[in-house]
Amino acid sequence: MQSTVSKPRILVVEDEAIVDRDIRQQLTELGYEPVGHATRGEQAIALAGELRPDLVLMDVQLAAGMDGVAAAQAIRTQFSLPVVFLTAFADDEMLERAKLAEPFGTIVKPFTKRELRTVLELALYKDKAEAKLRESERRFRTIFNAEPECVKLLGPSGDLLEMNSAGLAMLEAGSVDEVRSHGLANFIRPEYRAAFGDLHRRVMGGTAGVMEYGITGLRGTRLWLETHATPMRDADGRVTMTLDITRDISARKQAESALRESEERYRQLVNLSPYAIGVYQRGKIVLANRAAVAMFGETSAQQLIGQSIQDLIHPEHLDAAQNRIERMLKGESGLYPTDDRYRRLDGSLFDVEVSAAPFTYQGLPAVQVIALDITKRKRAESALRETTRQLQALSRRVLETQETERRRVAHELHDELGQALTAIKINLQSRERFKHQSPDELNAENLRIVDDALQQVRRLALALRPSILDDLGLTPALRWIAEQTATRSQITVNFHPAMAPVRLASDIETACFRIVQEALTNVVRHAGARQVEIELRRDGDALVLRVHDDGCGFDLAVMRERAVAGGSIGVLGMQERAALIGGQLDIRSTPGNGCTVQLRCPWRTV
């Protein structure tokens, strides 16, 4: 099947009928299709719009009305049709005007068919080329304006040549001319203008570049932009302009600023926290706060950073800690808090309560560890347990002692005082049977028995509580008990009161007396001492009582264990009495070096 090729359609504008007929004849012979003819400029414009020919062959000189140059300009402007001028002659003014119409060619009358064909073919080819160029330009403009990023062309001096719609929107401008009127540099914040100028000069020198900077739009909106600038070269390789592609990075900048602020707040919270906080990553400590530095006994975080947990956790606890970390990083929960034992870099050990959680640090998986030194708490708990054991032992011994004392008092009352009273009763009942005995002798015997009973009562009363303590106070009571002990045991007991006589609070006097009484009892029973020194003095707001002997001494730890086990109540009793008055009892002794018992308690008077 033979394809049909359409003939180029030509509109002829010629006011001479003979010439018009000849031209159309030649066009037909050359294979063109004359689609109409006009004799005036106005008629030519109307036919061009109606017929839309491929080309207009226009006589420059028309007899009446609008000439061919003016008609050609109108046709080019309104319909973008190619125009070829026909002319026999023209003056200079006409030629200048003809240039403004941008003709696709000129044919000088008279002309041959060959000349006509050549000019027409060149004009039609040029029109097709320009049509392609216009289409390419249209596509470029469509892409240029549809680009979501700002695209602009800058001349050698930084003057704005082109800018797309996205760029205008960034600058809050309505047109390129509005941007030019304000000056592109004036949109850039002052602190970045010099750097932007340097970037443009480098790119005009042939080197692409990138820059971040801030701008202020016409309505006051402040944005952060990032520009990628590339040199644009002509056919000879010379840089004639720059292509700048700019994106709005305000959101990224805000996110970066928010991240920096968040990191700064995190660091401040970490550093100000009273808890030791560290970040563990890839087997090393990568961050440590001040509390952690202090807890490990160091002076700088750099001394901890880079340390392995093998260096910081007690070997007995290391495997369990590593296992917890691995399980936690795999998503297991409920592993913390827990108690652990850490090791300082100097080798000393301490107890901690640890909490840990996985998180991302500098883009990599890590573990944040929060630790609290609970060494004092552990010691307090241990001391509490020990005190509880001691109190339990003391309670048992107190009950036993109470029963023993009651049995002793009962025995004394029954055997001594009871017998004396019984003897008096018998004497009174037997007066009739012993009439021969003198009444004076019987009364004398009764008086003797009563005296013995009174002495027994006094001994019992003194054993329970010496009246001198209540009547005269602590200093006379301690002097009395020192003298009594020395008399009974042949041990030299020296009492050194280094304070003015004053009545102290009753509970303090009682506790001090009983502690000295118990200490002297222990010396007499176990120490084998030759001499005892008792000191009583005031030290500021405290009362200090000290009892020292030169006896055989003992192992204090063994003695405490024996006391807790129920073997002795003396030491526990003294400690309990000291605690009840808010004091501290310190016992120091080693085998062969005697013993010192010192009480330090608040000074309180009556």
The coarse overall form would be rod-shaped
Q: How big is the Rg?
A: 60 Å
Number of helices in the DSSP assignment: 20
- Low-pLDDT residue intervals, each spanning 5 or more residues: none
Q: Please, what is the average pLDDT?
A: 83
The portion of residues forming beta strands comes to: 15-25%
- Secondary-structure-based class equals alpha+beta
Descriptive key words:
single chain, 606 residues, alpha+beta, five-stranded parallel beta sheet, five-stranded antiparallel beta sheet, 20 helices, rod-shaped
What features would you describe in this structure?
- With 606 residues, the protein is of the alpha+beta class.
- It is 50% helix and 23% strand.
- The strands form four sheets. It has a five-stranded parallel β-sheet, with helices on both faces. Strands 7-6-10-9-8 form a five-stranded antiparallel β-sheet, with helices on both faces. The protein has a five-stranded antiparallel β-sheet with strand order 12-11-15-14-13, with helices on both faces.
- Strand 16, helix 18 and strand 17 form a beta-alpha-beta unit.
- Helix 17 packs parallel to helix 18 and helix 18 runs antiparallel to helix 20.
- The longest helix has 55 residues.
- The chain is rod-shaped.
- The protein starts with 8 loop residues before the first strand and ends with a strand.
